[in-house]
Specification:
The protein is mostly helical and 103 residues long. The protein has six helices and no strands. The protein has helices at residues 6-17, 22-25, 33-41, 51-57, 62-78, 84-102. Helix 1 packs across helix 3 and helix 1 runs antiparallel to helix 5. The longest helix has 19 residues, at 84-102. The N and C termini lie far apart (41 Å).
């Protein structure tokens, strides 16, 4: 059983809230409705560079969508790994150290 894409679910939710159909949004992303449907279902990934475009179409914050998109990417890499949580904690420490050095 695959975990639903948090990014895809949010995109569908926002699209429906705007009363937009797949066939209206897909061409704006230069794809067909089947591709966009797969992105919403989490069986296909949107390209990172398309996130600002879809955020604009759906009148939402690009950072929120990018965060969910990245979370889905991380999950795809570590799912099923016994040490997934430990690896994420180590990564978090490393990111925090880098952030402190750059502040």
């Amino acid at each position: 059983k695959t975990m639903k894409s948090q990014f895809g679910e949010r995109v569908r939710e926002l699209r429906e809230k705007q009363n937009l159909y797949l066939r209206q949004v897909a061409p704006l992303l230069e794809m067909d409705t089947a591709q966009l449907s797969k992105i919403e279902k989490g069986t296909r990934q949107l390209k990172r560079e398309q996130i600002p475009i879809i955020a604009n179409i759906l009148k939402t914050d690009a950072d929120e969508l990018l965060t969910l998109w990245l979370a889905d990417q991380l999950y795809a890499v570590v799912k099923g790994e016994k040490l997934a949580n430990q690896a994420i904690q180590v990564t978090e420490k490393k990111l925090n150290l880098r952030k402190r050095r750059n502040d």
